[in-house]
Each structure stands twice: as C-alpha cells, then as structure tokens.
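Dear H.,

Thanks for agreeing to be a second pair of eyes. The structure we're designing against is below in token form, covering all 88 positions.
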C-alpha cells in the first residue's frame, strides 16, 4: 500500500509525494502555490491513475525506466523516480 503525502518545499510550493510501505518515494508532482490546489490535484491524479492509458512509460540511461502520469486536463503531471528495468 502506498501513502500520499503533501509537502511544502523551501520555495513555499506544495508537492504531492507518493511513498511505498518502506517510505521510498515512488513519484512526485509539480509544485502548487496553495495547499488547497495541491489537495484538489490529489483527487484528479487518483482518478487518472485508474486508466492505464494515462501512464507514459519512458526508458532513460542504462535501460532504467520511469513513468509520467498525465491527467486529462493536462494541468496535473507527476513523474516517478527512476527504477531498474525488469531484466536487471
């Protein structure tokens, strides 16, 4: 099970963080000016995560992978941390 956290950065923006059971960050969002906007984005992102088509899978250096979760309104975008490819 993963937990959703809302954190305020040094620049006073709020970000969504998704962490797994071991508290390892799985993904993070762009910065939001207000906590209210960030909380609203959580709901939009939750709905988008139900559709596989909203996930863009990318291969980066050394055949490692990450994904981007896009919402239908294109306003809320989250990016995962890089993870090892299944063959490694």
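And this is the sequence the design step returned. I haven't edited it by hand at all.
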């Amino acid at each position: 099970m993963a937990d959703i956290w809302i954190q305020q950065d040094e620049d006073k923006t709020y970000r969504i963080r998704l962490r797994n059971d071991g508290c390892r960050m799985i993904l993070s969002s762009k910065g939001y000016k207000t906590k209210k906007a960030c909380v609203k984005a959580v709901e939009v992102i939750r709905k988008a995560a139900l559709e596989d088509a909203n996930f863009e899978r990318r291969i980066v250096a050394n055949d490692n992978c990450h994904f981007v979760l896009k919402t239908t309104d294109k306003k809320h975008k989250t990016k995962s941390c890089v993870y090892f490819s299944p063959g490694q």
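Two observations from my side: The beta strands are 3-8, 14-19, 25-29, 55-59, 65-70, 77-80. The mean pLDDT is 84.

Warmly,
E.
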